[in-house]
Fold each of these.
Amino acid sequence: MFRRDLLQDKVVVITGGGTGLGRAIGERYLELGAKLAIASRREEVLARAAQEMTAQGGEVFYKSCDVREEKQIADLFDAVFAHYGKVDILVNNAAGNFISPTERLSAHAVDAVLKIVLHGTFYTTLELGKRWITSGQGGVMLNIVTTYAASGAGSGFVVPSAAAKAGVLSLTRSLAVEWAKYGIRQVAIAPGMFPTEGAWSRLVPSDEIAERLMHRVPLRRVGNKSELANLAAFLVSDEAGYINGEVVTIDGGEWLQGAGEFNELIDLSAHDWDQLSAMTRKK
Ligand SMILES: CCCCCCCCC/C=C/C(=O)SCCNC(=O)CCNC(=O)[C@H](O)C(C)(C)COP(=O)(O)OP(=O)(O)OC[C@H]1O[C@@H](n2cnc3c(N)ncnc32)[C@H](O)[C@@H]1OP(=O)(O)O
Ligand SMILES: NC(=O)C1=CN([C@@H]2O[C@H](COP(=O)(O)OP(=O)(O)OC[C@H]3O[C@@H](n4cnc5c(N)ncnc54)[C@H](OP(=O)(O)O)[C@@H]3O)[C@@H](O)[C@H]2O)C=CC1
């Protein structure tokens, strides 16, 4: 669906790029001519991913980096600049999350999520942003958030994630204005349900929960990683050069179904409607 050279020779850093959605985005970028640098805590995961991702060609540099640690982020960008000579695009995709009643959380559990999602995204953004501003080079930052951030509704049972992702969205919009003069563009994606090992193991531990959640999606299916990857490719490309500070939701209509007061009526049959309309029409 895209020109094969859409991202030709663009250097892209993807945090959490060795697994799940980060990896799917990276694979699509590679097909479109980009050069990748993937980073996360587990070096062995990155090494395996890099090897598999380059099986069809392309270049994937990897480096272990904990985005909660300022020094490790500086080391990451030093290494990527030394390897490729530049960075054009940053995808802030690394995250942590799990379901829990909020009153069961310790301060440590809250920090575990906030530090990866909010602090980690802020630190990578700051480190690269300063380098771009100093060198006069611009670029694009894509932040992966969630529908409960984009809708503004938040969500029970994942409250540290809801608070952190809302902060990331605020960072996106704030810097879209403040850093535009430096040629730095900010965009975000709010994915709905995309099955990945990382998300499912922590958020959808039973088939019953999966079934309940699925019922919330008007399209009655989960998303394909390739659908998300295509959106991520467009948003960071020059073709989307006038989109700045925007978050694009890709969720099969899930959040809208939850938002409309009468959408619960979706399951009524024609017979049910015959009865209801007999009751509601003026006699
Ligand atoms: C179809 C539908 C689609 C539904 C899909 C809809 C998608 C919703 C949006 C999805 C958003 C995502 O981000 S999905 C991304 C999912 N991927 C990830 O989370 C990958 C990275 N995650 C991790 O590394 C870990 O899970 C995480 C806990 C966040 C961080 O690990 P750490 O090693 O730093 O932390 P730990 O030392 O293990 O734990 C820190 C504290 O947190 C507590 N803790 C850890 N896990 C806990 C848990 N499950 N329940 C309660 N408490 C927990 C511990 O007890 C500790 O508290 P104390 O005991 O007090 O010390
Ligand atoms: N899957 C879904 O349905 C949805 C996902 N999202 C978002 O999509 C993104 C990807 O999630 P998904 O692919 O599902 O899950 P994954 O668990 O596969 O991805 C999370 C990644 O973040 C990395 N990571 C976690 N902590 C750190 C850290 N401290 N430093 C560096 N890297 C870290 C992990 O690698 P490592 O453990 O090696 O550090 C992992 O690669 C996240 O931002 C998530 O919030 C949003 C809505 C829905």
Note: Residues 11-280 form a domain with the Rossmann fold fold (CATH 3.40.50.720).
Amino acid sequence: MGVLEDDAGLSTKWTLAILIAVTVFIWGFHPLKRWQYRSFPGPRGYWVVGSLVDFVRKGAHKVFIDWNAKHGSIYVIMFGPRPIVVVNEPEVARTLLLTSDTRMIARGGQDLLSGDDSAMQKFNLAGMNDKEKHRDLKAAWLPMFNSASLGMSSELLNRSAEHLCSNLSRYARKKQETNIWRDYGRMTMDVVGSVAFGVDLHTQENDGSENSEEAEKLIEAAATLFSENPLARAGWPGLVTLFPWATPIIKPLAQRFPDSLSKRTSEARNKLRGTVKKLMEEARASQAAGTKAEPVKVDVSVSAGEQSAETAARKPRALAPGSFLRHMLNSKHTATQQPFSDLEITAQAFIFLLAGYETTANTLAFTTYCLATNPDKAENLMQEIDRESSQGHVNQEQLRHMPYTEACVKEALRLYPPATALARQLTQDMQIMGHRVPKGTGIFVPVMAFHHDPKIYNEPEAYKPERWMEGTPEYAADKHVQGKWMPFGEGTRVCVGQRLALMEARVALTHVFRRFTFKLSPGQVPLDVSCPLLLKPTTGIFVTPVPRKEE
Ligand code: HEM
């Protein structure tokens, strides 16, 4: 009797264990979600993780090109348990972007933020997902990028570009290699300092002084936030992505026992937030005192033997009259006419610093690489520069007469868009290309794949600035469909800094290619790129600047 009862108990336990194992196994394929999106084709994906593994392993710059070829115009991928629809048709994608205004929140990293970090994220223009508040914020940002404001910024952009050239000329004199990606990074951070905060952040000095060491730390912190995809390693963000329902348990654990990447990014965020807050406090204090906010003045005395252009570039700066911080301090909410709070302004300044730094540096580095590998195109560019702006500061009017310079940047942004895909989240059910897509679904628009599509671009892998100039055979050879070029996104969430970025890039290229050509170091072709968050040269772009004329 006793033996029989034991046997029955044992087999019940086994049955239960097998049942649980089978349920967990089936659950790992997310059958309900897959059923809901059954009309869509898409990669099969792995157990629990779905398509995340391929996304992280191949990188967002490559994986969509592969998936698009296999699954066609619209398909679904599984980010763990989360279905995301990929709209692989430029015109349809553009229409969708024009009507949908909510950015998809990347669960992993953002769900784990708390305190000031979380506030910075939620209140900044890019992270704000409340429709009304986003409109209000964007209305406050936009005047910073109209022609009049850009005209004021132009002077600062020219000075930063001159400073970059003085650094490049030092390498040129020594016939020394440099990682031009980092040089451009120092320049774009310099621009953020002057345009956003009206101060000299000293990021281009690189002379071992206290200021320059502090500046290096700032750059390092900004670079850290772009350096790794948090989903690429086994850590807390990955767990939240795979098991979002467990966030309330995971979050306190992640805070108590942070993994190494979380530690580094948290330190980086602290550094950046600290800098932004300090600048904000200084600006607020000087506003309260009724004085102009003064730049952080530090003696940047010129070392003996430097040239006069360098001397001009290294003088302490006057405060930019139209700096973003001052503009925001004077802005008001449209509906209530209340001024923005310190937290709101700090969050905007924080995202300006991040968004304005790496994107533009990568764009300039990629453009320089494209020109160094296509000397005939570099020659065309230099002819235009020599004709339209051979010396001094380049202004908006001159830039208007430099279509080839603009085309060089546009074409580099086509081949290497820093943001390789755009993300949205539907706030209502939608019908897309014959499929019903439920409210709440995440959407990816694979911009980089559009930019390399041979059905749109003739010889898509070739660098041809002429394809952006009407009347040329290269322009005629491409197909002209809306949405085929979207490095800055589209619709209400389009990049607010687009005009500044394009102007900054053209000003920098004008100064740089007026004075130098570039010899690529061995091993640079083909360029090794990766896409942890933004598309970037994996380690950099190594070149030796060669002066065009005797310096
Ligand atoms: C070449 C340089 C740049 C590129 C390629 C770039 C690209 C982008 C892209 C793709 C988006 C998302 C658009 C969308 O979802 O439709 C974006 C948004 C944004 N960018 Fe840029 N960006 C650049 C420079 C800048 C600069 C200099 C700033 C600084 C002012 C900036 C500030 C922002 C902000 C605040 C947003 C969020 C806009 C919103 O949600 O309304 N960007 N950018």
Note: The mean pLDDT is 89.
